[in-house]
Amino acid sequence: MRPLKIALVGIGLVGTEIVRVLKERNFPMSELRVIATREREEEIDGQTFQVTTAAPERFRGIDLAFFAGTEGARGASREWGWLAVEQGAIVIDNGDDFRMDDRVPLVVPEINAEALRAHQGFIANPNCSTIQMVVALAPLHRAARIKRIVVSTYQAVSGTGKSAVDELIEQTVRTVRGEEPEPHVYPHPIAFNCLPHISSLKDEYPGYYGEEIKMIKETRKILGEPELKVSATCVRVPVFNGHSEAINVQFERPISADEAREILSNAPGVFVLDKPAEAGYATPRFVSGKDEVFVSRIRQDTSAENALDMWVVADNIRKGAALNAVQIAEKMIEMGLLPRS
Q: Domains (ranges, CATH) in the chain?
């Protein structure tokens, strides 16, 4: 196939990582147009990119447009996404504006790539926390069918963007000096703290913050199980990069920890690191920069029938955003869906 002309909308943490992933995986492209809120030059790993502002003509002739906004940021894909589709591009959107739109496939390539066949030019990248959870759970769901999921997340500040990373650094320094940290990005200091508050409260699910609702609704859509019971508590923690999740999952039939390890050891995109006696388990620091979703501490839940507990960790900027988006594009090429006919 011919190399593709690509537009990248947004050049923050996720956009920068998309550029790296495209280069690392030798993605077939002849052009990369970088679009953001202001014109400037950006250097990524020694290569300089001329950044332009968005306008309809920027999408003319583009085969594929990645919208790489920070999780929860609104505006870019809502304003320009469908316009880019009208100009002939296929859009892969990291934002959350259209994930639950019936027109838009919500895709993790290892799990539901067939949903891409119904695309109307616009594909959504799921929430970072949802991606790593379903990569770990979908193989088990196929084997034993999930009845209920209870998940608690420990989410890094990189999910909020560079300003949150900078704030964690600043607050850490101030705290160590004995000074009072000043919160700006979050409602409370994040250094040496945990905040059970990601996004805003929603009337749809009283008492649940937006990130928790995303995990509930997106998991159901990706797995094709609209009535699946899912409960989530999402917590921001003072970690720079890498999300962790403690997951309790109940199945319709008995499934042992050994069976789960065997299934996951052969699942695409999963790395089982489960040697607790040797302190062999995944941590955010260990997984940062890696592609796989790491699963550790797989064990039988002693309080419920047919239930397992597990610890799931992944790089939220990489697999949780940039890599998954590029993998969607690669899968579309493989399926003959890109370039757009």
A: 4-125+321-334 (3.40.50.720), 130-316 (3.30.360.10)
